[in-house]
TrEMBL record:
UniProt keywords, alphabetically: Hydrolase, Membrane, Protease, Transmembrane, Transmembrane helix
GO BP: proteolysis
InterPro entries: Zn_peptidase_2
Bilayer-spanning residue ranges: 114-135, 142-162, 196-218
Protein's recorded name: Zn-dependent protease
Species annotation: Neobacillus piezotolerans
Superkingdom of origin organism: Bacteria
Gene Ontology molecular function terms on file: peptidase activity
Stored Pfam families: Zn_peptidase_2
Entry coiled-coil feature ranges: none
């Protein structure tokens, strides 16, 4: 049973990463009909939505694209920033989707931002408390560790509607602005859907691990 469990928490993220890389590699070779770079796509969508206080910068790394709400910056990896592909269009538009959420005070985005300090604390310290609780058979310590982990898991779960909504906004924008056309719509959505799988996988693994620890805690209680 434990072998199956650990196989799942390893294989689920790997499968999601393979889907993302597969979709990106495929559609990064397909040029968009508009021939606009990711940076140009991001700028056009920002301007169309009246957002002029968000900068677009070239970042580093592979698929390291993100929106920084504190600095009001969209950072696009080199392949996305300079790319003319459907993959570059999809990723750039998705990050602008987060900027639009920020502008419109999207509730789930605000909630996720509020959870960041607690989630970071939970990620950093939960396992220390959990290991002490299990090894020393201290139920209170284990329960405290589970509580910290639950905050980190909640962050993962709240991330899902934020990411799905950003992708939905991205599709609406690139279609309405004529950045993509016809068959490109389906292929752009494939890139966005594949990227969303990474968040689904991360949330699923986090929930599974939390459930496992809760079962360990209840088992300790029964053995008392």
């Amino acid at each position: 049973m434990f072998i199956l469990y650990f196989a799942l928490i390893i294989l689920i993220p790997l499968w999601a990463q393979m889907r993302v890389k597969g979709a990106f590699n495929k559609y990064s070779k397909v040029a968009s009909s508009s021939r606009k770079t990711g940076a140009e796509v991001a700028r056009e969508i920002l301007q169309a939505n009246g957002i002029y206080d968000v900068r677009i910068e070239q970042g580093t790394g592979f698929l390291s694209d993100h929106y920084d709400p504190r600095a009001k910056v969209i950072r696009l990896s080199p392949d996305i920033y300079h790319g003319h592909s459907l993959a570059a269009t999809a990723v750039a538009a998705h990050e602008v989707g987060h900027a639009i959420q920020d502008q419109q005070d999207y509730a789930f985005l605000r909630f996720r931002h509020a959870l960041v300090p607690v989630a970071n604390l939970g990620s950093n310290f939960s396992w220390v408390l959990i290991l002490i609780g299990i090894l020393a058979h201290l139920q209170g310590m284990l329960l405290l560790g589970i509580a910290f982990m639950a905050a980190a898991v909640l962050f993962q779960v709240v991330t899902l509607p934020v990411e799905f909504n950003a992708s939905s906004r991205a599709m609406d924008q690139v279609i309405s602005l004529g950045i993509i056309r016809n068959e490109e719509e389906r292929n752009t959505k494939k890139v966005l859907d594949a990227a969303a799988l990474t968040y689904v996988a991360a949330a699923a693994v986090a929930v599974l691990e939390l459930v496992r620890l809760i079962l360990i805690y209840t088992g300790m209680n029964r053995s008392e």
